[in-house]
Amino acid sequence: MSLKWKGVMPAVTTKFTNDDVLDLQMFETNIKAQLDAGVHGIVLGGTLGEASTLLDEEKSILTQETVKIVNGKVPVLMNVAEQSTKGAIAAAKKAEDDGAKGLMMLPPMRYKAGDRETVEYFKAVANNTSLPIMVYNNPVDYKIEVTLDMFDELLKCDNIEAVKESTRDISNVTRIKNRFGDRLKIMTGVDTLALESLLMGADGWIAGLVCAFPRETVAIYELQKAGRIQEALAIYRWFLPLLELDINPKLVQNIKLAEVATGIGTENVRAPRLPLFGEERTKVLAIIAKGMRTRPTLPEYKNLQELV
Description:
This protein is an alpha/beta fold and 308 residues long. 44% of the residues lie in helices and 11% in strands. Helix 1 runs parallel beside helix 9, helix 3 (85-97) runs parallel beside helix 4 (115-126) and helix 9 runs antiparallel to helix 10 (229-243). The relative contact order is 0.13.
């Protein structure tokens, strides 16, 4: 396996200036905070990255800049969320040319593809790239489910290696393990089910609130991995009200406000998104403020695997 599907991989936000261009300075600040916390990879251009509003050239700039910032410390993945198979193949090729080491792939956008169409879409991209692929399975938000029977066919492609498991069905982790063993790595994709999924055998966590709270997120992963479940659980219980900001249509605005609170982001979003206002903003700020007031003191969580 060319990419280690494990640990915490932030689905990072895209930073914009007040003039709606890429804010690469703040973007670098955030990426360095993620690296300092000990993340295991960086995922670009997902929902949190406002991919649907990014120009192709902006995606390319983000990939190239991130590759420079991480300097080989962790793999950089680019999300592929396209309307056509042709477009998805081109996006995968561009990501590879720009230095990405892996792909996160959604089913076709806008058109609700059938099972056979979805399988052929993923296979066509897999057969036209050397990059390892993580299938993003999120039927709640994207209305297409990649079933275990579909994965039977997809796994004939050697470079389809992982799933971002976002079905919200915690027992699906066990189903996948029972059926595919280690052939299909599982990265949990729902912040509010993250610890539960890891304890059931998920290999890692594609995280959202990590964008604002990288150390707390990585600590939960590392502590549970080392068998220090109660310590992980205590942090997770503190974290849950903040994690719930991720399972909301305004997750981008919510998490960017949290990034402001921790000093590693701004709340600038790209239209049609607009910053939160009124009662909605007040409620989110109150959740963030409480989280900041009660932010836990973390144990030393790095290198735990070497100590057990």
